C-alpha cells in the first residue's frame, strides 16, 4: 500500500443531472455525462475484449462520432479461432464420451460455449462493418513497440479537420496500463472532454492512483465513482480493489450546484453490479 491508508474521502463525485448509462447491464456498462457525448466527435475506446456495447450505445447517442477501438487481445481471427476451438470441443472424442455416459451438463456447457463464440464472431464482424468504426488490434501503453502504440501515436492518426477543443472522449479498461497511459493524456487535455476509466489493483497501487487522479483534477471533475464487485475490498478499508471513475472537463460544467449529500453510491436505477449474483459495493466518501 506504500504507506497510505486507502480512503475515498477525497474523491467524492460532483453529481450532475445528465449522467446516463452506456453499455449493457452489469459488466461492460459505464455512467457518462451526456454533455460529453454531445460534444464528442471522436471516441477512443481502449480495451473492448468481447463486449463493445458501450461503443454501440455511444454511437446511438451520437451517430456522427468516429470510434477508434484498440485491443491487441481480440480480432476477427482471434474470435474465429475460438469458434474452431469450441467446435472441436463439441465434436471431439471427449464430448462423444460425455454422450455415451449421459453427462448432459458437460455437453450443454460445450454447446453453450460454441453458440456464444459463433454469436460473438458474427456480432464483431457486423460491428466492424459500420463506416465510423475503426478497429486496431493494438494495445496502448507509454512506449511504442510491435503490439502497442502510444496516445501520441493515436492523436496523430486522427483527422486534423475534426480536432476541435473538447471533441474527444476516452473509454479505458486496459488492466493496469492506465497508470502508464493517463499521464500522457494531459498533453491532449485541450481536446479530451471526458474519460471513463477502470482503475485496477488498488490494493497494491493506491499511491500511484492518488497521484494520477490528483494530476487530472485541476482540469477534470470527478462526476461518478463505482466499485467493481468482481473483486473484494482493500483489506482494512471500505475501498474496492477496482474503481470505475468518470471524469468531465471542468469547462463543460456551467451550473453551480450544491453538493448532493443525499446521493448514495451505487446510484439506484443507474449503476449495475459487474457481477449480477453478488452485491454491489456501497461507497463511503
The pLDDT mean sits at 93
Based on secondary structure, the structural category is: alpha/beta
Distance between the termini: 19 Å
Helix content: 25-40%
Which segments are poorly predicted (pLDDT under 50) over 5 or more consecutive residues?
Answer: none
Determine the CATH topology of the domain at 9-74 and 137-252: Rossmann fold
Using the 3D structure, state the CATH architecture of the domain at 9-74 and 137-252. Answer: 3-Layer(aba) Sandwich
Order of helices and strands: EEHEHEHHHEEEHEHEHEE
Number of helices in the DSSP assignment: 8
Report the principal-axis shape: globular
Number of beta-strand segments: 11
Main sheet summary:
7 strands, mixed
The first-level CATH class of the domain at 9-74 and 137-252 is given as Alpha Beta
Radius of gyration: 21 Å
SS strand fraction: 15-25%
What does this molecule look like?
The structure is a single chain. The mean pLDDT is 93. The chain has 285 residues and is an alpha/beta fold. α3 (76-91) runs antiparallel to α5 (104-128). It has a 7-stranded mixed beta sheet with strand order 5-4-3-8-9-11-10, sandwiched between helices. The longest helix has 25 residues, at 104-128. The protein has a domain at 9-74 and 137-252: Rossmann fold, CATH 3.40.50. The two termini are 19 Å apart. Helices cover 33% and strands 19% of the residues. The chain is built from 8 helices and 11 strands. 31% of the residues are buried.
Key attributes of the depicted protein:
Rossmann fold; seven-stranded mixed sheet; 8 helices; 33% helix
